[in-house]
Amino acid sequence: MLAIAPAQAQQPLNRGEAVALLRTEFARAQALLEARRPDEARAILERLVIAAPETPAFRLLLAEVLLRQGVADRARFHYHALRGAQLSPADRAHVEARLAALAGGKRWAGHLSFGLVPQSNVGKRTADDTITIGGIDFQLDEASKARSGTGLSFSAGLTRRVVLSHDTLLRFGAQGSGFVYADRRFNDMRLNALVALERQAGQNLTVEMGLNHTLRLLADRPYARGPGLWLAARTRLGRATVLTTRAQVDWLTHPDAPGLDGARQGLSLGLHHQASPTLALTAQLSFDRTDARQPAQAGDGALVALGLRQAFAGGVTVGLDASLRRDARDAPDGLFGLRREDHTTSVALKLMRRDLRIFNHAPMIEIRHEQRRSTLPLAAFRNTSLGLYLSREF
């Protein structure tokens, strides 16, 4: 409570005194709004949400002020969080109306994220010094061993929405993401252009169909490119849960490795549940199939991922993500004579403060550990990274 009114809190407050102080500050914010002093009211409301993130009234009024001031992305965040709150029917209808208006009125949407990511194993290479082929041991040279380094991570996208009718819109845009290093051999970038039709098929159902074209660059050279097609649906299950399904197929060619050419099909299910204004839970299950020309490069994959986001009093939000992926190839590798099968685990801890801005970007710290076990020695690795990111939506 000290951040709200230091002069009134010379000694620790009991619960009753703390609640009374919060109510006093909330009434002061309301009075400032009536006096047409929104900047001062917003400052108080932001401190109130930090001090008592579970209180819907503070968050709802802050969202309204942010929306009036044109800060739509932050207003949208608070309205989404309120889906997990205990609201009156009138307030819940108001929140849903605001979210619908924000979604329908936004013609351009974009995001930008970049960060420095020190890693223990930049190229995700094996930690072994030797490998065995045909019963003979071979010593790996220094260039093939794991090494530490720092990369620049980036992700950016811009989308244009065109309303075709009251329930149908056209969406097109481009996005890119990747890692860039001083040693260009490790550079990995993806570029994607898309066009999609989106239709509101019911009060709680949105469906979309789209086309995309993907280009992936490794070491600054084209690695894979090709068109794709997808069909997706987003369904509201109750007041706070959203189920997303997506089916996609990409037809990829590889200029320097034609044996990898072929179609990749994927099916994914995602669940997002806003358990409370401060707690969000996510789950994902996906399957994919790669039909490459070379049987040793064709195979099946599956992924299970879980995540949570918890906001705490004081303004800090903690995120925890964990995933397990299995990949199995159809035929033995030509060099090792073994059928490749990988099991990859990843765990990430994220720390964020949504009220803090650096050059109008929200900062985030991410600690990630990734490990792959494989039947092929060269494919196994461990990598730990510490990412320092700045991101924004607009």
TrEMBL record:
Signal peptide: none
Source organism, top-level taxon: Bacteria
Coiled coil: none
InterPro entries: Slam_C, TPR-like_helical_dom_sf
Domain Surface lipoprotein assembly modifier C-terminal: 108-394
Protein name per Swiss-Prot or TrEMBL: DUF560 domain-containing protein
